[in-house]
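Module 6 notes. Inverse folding takes a fixed backbone as the condition and produces residue identities as the prediction. Think of it as a translation problem where the source language is geometry and the target language is the twenty amino acids. Below is one complete input and output pair. Work through it position by position during the lab.
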């Protein structure tokens, strides 16, 4: 039985607590929270479950002193110093907020590796997109093809179901002017993870790519205003965004990762849509033969359901939780999907 601390109880954190409680090899033994209003509450109740006898705390020192094998680390933004403290305390980390395929030459990454060795601990970056759709699943499927010329991983999502108004407006840029959105933090926040994903695929498949990953972003604006969405929108403000990251050989993309976010049911200029297949994730390997997959079920069936419990958020948490036994069994250091056994879920 592996003893697990859940670090942060946002959407992913709550789903992770549920996943830990359901996993036959895991035991929840601690819970870190950011806000004082969650301090002292039962972790199970914070996740919408029955009480489990684990009290949430803001006390980092107390959690570092807790006997635990692993931390499921899922704050909104990572803090390298906190991560290193957790690793030095001898606790493994699984996280959806970075380190999917880090640059081993980076001083910041080298410091994380040193912390892993000091604590005899492992750090594994996971998630869904990035953290699965963009690299783990394309690499698995690529073995079915030869002479591969292009790999594409792409998300098509309706942002009406993302129930975090502050994040949707201030971070994602919806409801802002195009200039504000394009100069906002979203591209930078996404960039590190998706560039790592693209680089993992290019390295593993052996493409002789240019060092730079090409990044592009576009916006579409609302034709008419509305106050009926998760954030209010005036005419001419951002109601859809596209991001793309590409590895280049001879000026041609060979590996692409893309995000398409739309506030659906809003008339857009340009008139983007999700297409006939609706919300989905796509993976396509162009080679002999060309193979494509469409992932459904990672987005909610309705806006109302998504505002209550978004399956993409739940899947992100599950992908991390499912990795905990393999991460705990691994040697110290940063371990990617290329270093670990095949990660699988568990039966009910």
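Target side of the pair, the amino acids:
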């Amino acid at each position: 039985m592996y003893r697990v601390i859940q670090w942060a109880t946002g959407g992913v954190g709550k789903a992770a607590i549920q996943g830990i409680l359901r996993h036959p090899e895991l035991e929840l033994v601690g819970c870190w929270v950011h806000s004082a209003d969650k301090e002292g509450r039962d972790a199970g109740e914070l996740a919408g479950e029955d009480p489990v006898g684990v009290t949430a705390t803001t006390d980092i020192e107390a959690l570092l002193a807790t006997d635990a094998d692993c931390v499921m680390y899922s704050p909104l933004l990572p803090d390298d110093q906190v991560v290193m403290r957790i690793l030095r305390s001898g606790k493994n980390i699984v996280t959806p907020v970075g380190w999917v395929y880090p640059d081993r030459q980076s001083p910041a990454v080298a410091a994380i590796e040193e912390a892993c060795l000091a604590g005899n601990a492992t750090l594994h970056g996971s998630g869904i997109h990035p953290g699965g759709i963009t690299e783990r699943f394309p690499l698995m499927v690529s073995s079915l093809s030869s002479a591969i010329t292009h790999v594409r991983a792409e998300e098509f999502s309706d942002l009406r179901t993302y129930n975090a108004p502050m994040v949707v407006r201030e971070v994602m840029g919806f409801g802002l002017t195009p200039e504000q959105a394009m100069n906002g933090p979203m591209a930078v926040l996404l960039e590190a993870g998706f560039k790592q994903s693209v680089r993992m695929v290019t390295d593993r498949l052996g493409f002789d790519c240019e060092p730079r990953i090409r990044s592009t972003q576009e916006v579409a604006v609302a034709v008419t205003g509305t106050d009926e969405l998760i954030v209010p929108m005036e005419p001419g403000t951002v109601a859809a965004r596209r991001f793309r990251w590409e590895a280049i050989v001879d000026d041609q993309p060979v590996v692409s990762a893309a995000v398409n976010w739309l506030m659906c049911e809003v008339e857009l200029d340009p008139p983007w849509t999700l297409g006939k297949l609706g919300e989905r994730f796509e993976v396509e390997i162009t080679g002999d033969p060309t193979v494509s997959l469409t992932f459904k079920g990672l987005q909610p069936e309705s806006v109302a359901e998504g505002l209550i419990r978004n399956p993409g958020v739940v899947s992100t948490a599950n992908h991390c939780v499912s990795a905990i036994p393999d991460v705990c069994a691994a040697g110290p250091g940063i371990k990617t999907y290329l270093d670990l056994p095949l990660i699988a879920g568990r039966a009910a």
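Reference fact for the lab report: The mean pLDDT is 95.
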